[in-house]
Amino acid sequence: MNKIKVAIVGIGNCASSLIQGINYYADKEEKNIKGVIHWKIGKYLPSDIEVVAAFDVDKRKVNKTIDEAIFAEPNCTTIFQKEIAKTDVKVSMGPVLDGVAPHMKNYDDKHSFLICDEKPVDISSVLKESGAEILINYLPVGSEKAAKFYAKKALEAEIAFINCMPVFIVSDETWSEKFKEKGIPIIGDDIKAQIGATITHRTLANLFKERGVKLDRTYQLNTGGNTDFLNMLNRDRLSSKKESKTEAVQSVIGERLASENIHIGPSDYVPWQKDNKVCFLRMEGRTFGDVPMNIELRLSVEDSPNSAACVIDAIRCCKLAIDRKIGGELTAISSYVMKHPTHQFTDELAGQMLNDFIEGKIER
Q1: Do 202 and 165 belong together in one domain?
Q2: CB 76 within 8 A of CB 13
Q3: Are 278 and 225 in contact (CB under 8 A)?
């Protein structure tokens, strides 16, 4: 069977978990697998994904083969698959643009980025020469210019684009139309976790609505110790992230909360947590007779494997769209695995739409 050839921008913790997962599930059978949302999508298994190109700016990763680079600092996610298939694909130097927050230079090298002094490669040429069909964007939060740069390169190379970070490209009509005109599928924006803060918050918010409970106010506070949380200490880089996470919850509440009654966003960087993300969630509401109630919840998850479970499905759905010659935003998978798709649906409905798309019952 032909491999799904992908290129990755940003060989950080998320890329590490994805590549570990491709290898982890390579020798598994459906009867004994755990941890994946869909074992088979169309004719494609997790192990049918092949990384043929990669881009980063950290000198500890640039020019390393992918199987080496995913374990280089500052990556700190759990290593659940030590044995990675050897490859001759090396990480290429990309343009820095706004991909590295200035404040990160004030932190220890093992936690921060060390910019390589090499000249960036010709991204379009590398993509074309590699045979990549899909470009996955794992850039840090706040990388507005860099995200749009790579989206443009995907268009130039005429390959699909999966936007896993909160720069609004797929949910921006101008960008979306460009991909649709070229017949190129896109999925985005801002990846959800398999079981994470956003999906849990959405589920509880929908439960309140379905059970007739009036939600008055809520917060979601998150801490972590990976480079994503260190990067987000610069609050100027957070506007799209905060909007993405907030809208994901607001969209299922029914009656939208006033801005002062909903607070969702990263809260602090705790180095020793590494890739572990801890979410503190509170919801206050009123039940029968306007009697007050509240829920407080603490959720602890390994952040990057949590996202990889969704990305591995997004890649295979994107390949289905390529096979079916469908361009533009893929509504079902975007609504199911992304925080800020163009169209928000309840998770139950999005899940049904996704299954219908996989089975070919709906176009996108």
Answers
A1: no
A2: yes
A3: no
- The count of structural domains within the chain is 2
The span from the CA of 2 to the CA of 47, in Å, is 11
Residue 282 belongs to a domain with what CATH number? 3.30.360.10
Residue 49, domain extent: 4-192+305-358
DSSP per-residue codes, 27-38: G--GGG--S-S-
Say whether both 70 and 29 belong to one domain: yes
pLDDT score recorded for residue 302: 97
What is the C-alpha to C-alpha distance for residues 285 and 242, in angstroms, rounded to an integer? 23
H-helix or E-strand containing 53? strand 49-56
| Residue carrying structure tokens 């298939």 | 85
Beta bridge partners of 31: none
Output the pLDDT for position 1.
61
Q: Rounded to the nearest 5 degrees, what angle is found at the Cα of 136, between the Cα atoms of 180 and 190?
A: 80
**Distance in angstroms (rounded) separating the CA atoms of residues 276 and 229:** 11
| Separation between Cα atoms, residue 314 and residue 320, nearest integer Å | 10
Task: Report the pLDDT averaged over residues 110-120.
Answer: 96
Kind plus residue range of the DSSP H or E element containing 215? strand 214-224
Provide the CB-side half-sphere exposure for 238 (13 A, CA): 17
Residue 344 and residue 276 share a domain? no
Q: In angstroms, what CA-CA distances link 99 with 1, 95, 324? A: 36, 8, 34
Statement to judge: residues 122 and 13 lie in one domain: yes
Mean pLDDT of 199-221: 96
Q: How far apart are CA 43 and CA 194, in angstroms?
A: 22
Give the residue-averaged pLDDT of 132-146.
97
Q: Tell me: do 297 and 309 sit in the same domain.
A: no
Same domain membership, residue 204 and residue 292: yes
**Residue 364 falls within a domain, yes or no?**
no
In DSSP terms, 300 is beta-bridged to: 278
CA terminus-to-terminus distance, the chain = 24
Return all residues near 97 (Cβ < 8 A) that are at least 6 apart.
Answer: 143, 145, 146, 149
Neighbours of 272 (CB within 10 A): 6
Q: How far is CA 361 from CA 199, 283, 347, 352, in A?
A: 26, 38, 19, 11
Supply 310's token pair.
Answer: 């969704």
